[in-house]
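Appendix B. One record, verbatim.
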Amino acid sequence: MSERAHLVELLIRRSVQHGEFRLAGGQHSSYYIDARRTTMSAEGLAMVGQLGLAAIRDAGWVADAVGGLTLGADPVAYAIAVASCSSPPLVDAFTVRKDPKAHGTRRRIEGNLRPRDRVVVVEDVITSGASARWAIAAVEEAGAEVLGVLGLVDRLAGGRQAIEADGREVVVIATIKDLGLEPE
């Protein structure tokens, strides 16, 4: 079994739930993909890191850092950063807060993001594209350059198209169809 097929199997087993759900964007769905159940598992972290790093490099993106909107993007970014240790050049990670920190440095972005860095914004599940677009705005406001967006799972709900309509390239590791699901 390929590493990608193994990750898809793990996502199906750990992350896909059936029932009645309200998604972050307000839409209703008969299934929910809680990718964190996969991306926060030891096995999932290892696979996401390797596959994510490979997808970034296959896209031709030479990134200084990866990150996205907390919380879903965090384990994806951290896994990719760790994977880069055994396959240099190194790629650091950062986190975009939903709201700036209310104390201390009052930063909106935590971790390793510097002005002029070339970055890939990551997303665990792309639905409307709003989270990735929010992270892109924060990264650009901080003076970094966004090379593209990497999604772990695309729900095929228009999010990828919304991000691409902004002139961004989007690469995904899997879609809901790979998980045996259909768009709603």
